[in-house]
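Working notes for the structural subgroup meeting. M.R. asked for a predicted model of this chain before we commit to crystallization trials. I am recording the input and output together here so anyone reviewing the notebook later can reproduce the run.

Input as submitted:
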Amino acid sequence: MINLAKLFKDYNDAGALNEYLNLYGFVADQVFLTKSGDLGVVVQVEGIDYECLDENPLDSITRRLEVAQKVFDPQFRIYQYSSSATTRPFLTSSMTTKSSTRPSATA
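Returned structure, recorded in C-alpha cell form:
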C-alpha cells in the first residue's frame, strides 16, 4: 500500500516562491525589484538532454557552466529554479493531412 503522506512530502515541503523571494515588481522585462530594495535579473537557459551525451561533451558543458558562474563575485547569489512542462505530441504534416490516394466510394 502506498503511503500518501510520504508520497506528497516533497510537494508539501516545497512551499511557495514568495517565501524565498519578496518580489515587489518588475523594473524592466527581465529585471525585478524586491521589497527590501534589491534588484534581480531573470535569466532563462535552455537545458540539454544529458542522457544522450557521452562523457566528454557533458564534461565540456559542465565546465562552461562553471566558468560562466565564476564571473559573479561572492556578493552575488545565484538561485536555480527549474520547471518542466509537458508538450503536445509532435505530428508531421503527413500525419495531419488526409491521403489523396484513398479509393472513392463512387468508383
